[in-house]
Amino acid sequence: MLPLTRIFCVFFILGAVNAHGQDTTPSQEASQDSSQAQASIEQTQQEKEQQEYMLWANALWESMTPQTGNIALPGNVAELNVPDDFYYLNSQDSRKVLEDIWGNPPGSADGMLGMLFPAGATPFEGDSWGVTIEYQQDGYVTDEDADEINYDDLLAQMQEDTQLSSEERVTQGYEAISLIGWAAKPYYDEASNKLHWAKELKFGDAPVNTLNYNIRVLGRKGVLVLNFIAGMDQLPLINQNLDTVLTMADFKEGSKYADFNPEIDDVAAYGIGALVAGKVLAKTGLIAAALVFLKKFGVIIVLALGAFARKLYKGRKSKAKESKAEESTE
User: Which of 159, 195, 183, 179 lies closest to 272 in space, CA to CA?
Assistant: First the structure.
């Protein structure tokens, strides 16, 4: 099984051409023949690896089930209303994306409720992006301090925490991570009880920084957590889709923020600032750093990955239409 992060390169060796039209010696001809033979062997091996990758990717994509419409999330406290220009993958399919395709550490998808992707795209594309969905049931998060937080001071503390987290990642064999700064300062909408902000992250020596765009939907007993995973160069595209994603997710009646009952419901031990900082004070008193997913960029393959991925998506879409047509005739 070939991991997506393997780098495939094709070297085309056309042979040496004598610029002055002079005859080559027998030893030079033998050297050229040897080089051409080696190039042919390498190209054959690369074509074999390419074919194996395509078979692996196709099988993995066919094992997933994209969904649209009204979707009740696991736990039955929140739901999504996914329009046709997006699709949802459940928790099992999300694990395949995060760990098998994007190469995050094993266990990164634990507790994941699913992911959202733009229609017409698959996770195999080099410029693909997605939204992870989780739920933290730590109690009612008060928003009383939302207007009092100094987000510049908070950023400085977050950068220190990220440095400590990076040192631990390196000891585990993963790339270093650094928090560059805000890509979008935190904003809290009191009317909808939705909070969003964006961080610019750098992983190792990656030429493109990673965008970590966060959404938090406050509820009666916890927080719905949505995170965009994308490249910094995709920030304008994410901004275009932010409002759409914000309206997709909400709590069900009885679990909304306004349904909080102080007589029977628990209050979280943290507020808005801790949500942004990515720290949650657990009941044990320990601080747990929020998980940041690393999307693997830079996959090079003989054919255009984008074209291949679009072919996968169109193939799945055609099958879905055929299935619906068969159901309607029954």
Answer: 195
